[in-house]
Automatic annotation (TrEMBL):
Associated pathway: Amino-acid degradation; L-phenylalanine degradation; acetoacetate and fumarate from L-phenylalanine: step 1/6
Pfam family, one: Biopterin_H
Top EC class, one word: oxidoreductase
Coiled-coil stretches noted in the UniProt entry, renumbered to this chain: none
Record EC number: 1.14.16.1
Record Gene3D superfamilies: Aromatic amino acid hydroxylase
A biological process term (GO) from this entry: L-phenylalanine catabolic process
Domain Biopterin-dependent aromatic amino acid hydroxylase family profile: 1-312
Matches recorded under CDD domains: pro_PheOH (cd03348)
Protein name: Phenylalanine-4-hydroxylase
Cofactors (names): Fe(2+)
Amino acid sequence: MATKAHPDTDYTALPELGADVFTAPLAKPAHVGEDWIEPAQTDYSSEDHQVWDDLFKRQMEVLPGRAASAFLAGLDKLDLSRGGIPEFGELSEELGKLTGWSVIPVPMLIPDHVFFWHLANRRFPAGNFIRTRETFDYIQEPDVFHDVFGHVPMLTDPVFADYMQEYGRAGWKAMRYNRLKSLGALYWYTVEFGLIEEADGIRAYGAGILSGPTEAKFAVEAKSPNRIMLNVDRVMRTDYVISDLQPTYFVIESFEDLYRQTVERDFDRLYRNLAPGFTYANSAVIDVDNVINKGTLEYHLRGGRGSGAAPV
Ligand SMILES: C[C@H](O)[C@H](O)[C@H]1CNc2nc(N)[nH]c(=O)c2N1
Ligand SMILES: N[C@@H](Cc1ccccc1)C(=O)O
Ligand SMILES: [Fe+2]
């Protein structure tokens, strides 16, 4: 009989789901296996590569002075400015030398437990496809530009790289406590939309901020959003929107501080005390908050995306 991996201690084999570790199934395309890895990266057209180059150029016009230094250093270390959609094999080779991570192609959003399993093994699942000109400004599904440009440079930072692996390891426990949404909020407010205090001011390290020009400006310098120091107990109770700019961003002092607040703390007690849903609205400022600046929320009060409100 095949031995079954124990989700909290053995990260080598994909654990089987059961009544205690359950996530909603996603329709798996027939050409991928249980690991959801694409047999090969897409054979991109020259237009696909051109879309990448244009997205890259647009980001480089806004990121200096707004992106975290770890991110900009990562772009450099991986030579991501050389043009065209990176080949994942070559990219993994370079990244592997730096922090032991690799990048694997996946077709779309993959099930939570598979996503966690890859992260726990220092494999970053990246969307294979690239957006088109029609969806140039905004897509909801993560494509290769969001995943590779936005996430992969941060994986060159040794502390952040460890945090990502530990996040993957943390997933199954959260599932057993039925608190995946709470852990998901932590991912959202750090990995996707995190800000960091640097000597020259606040900078972005979250991939959702760094992969688009509007949010890069909005998150770092607009008057609308709240900017609050990260507090894990608070963030894991906070709702989030996936379809618009964030009303609130959470700020870390350093990646070491993020690591201390999360990896070096046992979440069991926290999970036991968390309500199954969210307690705080994504625009709320509450008593315990260490507020850097309280936003006007003007953008959201005017109706947000689709209303024509300026992201100010
Ligand atoms: C909560 C969980 O970490 C998150 O929703 C996962 C699920 N599956 C994913 N799948 C892909 N391809 N990319 C992602 O960022 C995620 N995120
Ligand atoms: N230390 C957390 C795990 C964790 C690591 C990294 C990020 C988030 C959570 C736990 O005991 O569950
Ligand atoms: Fe992402």
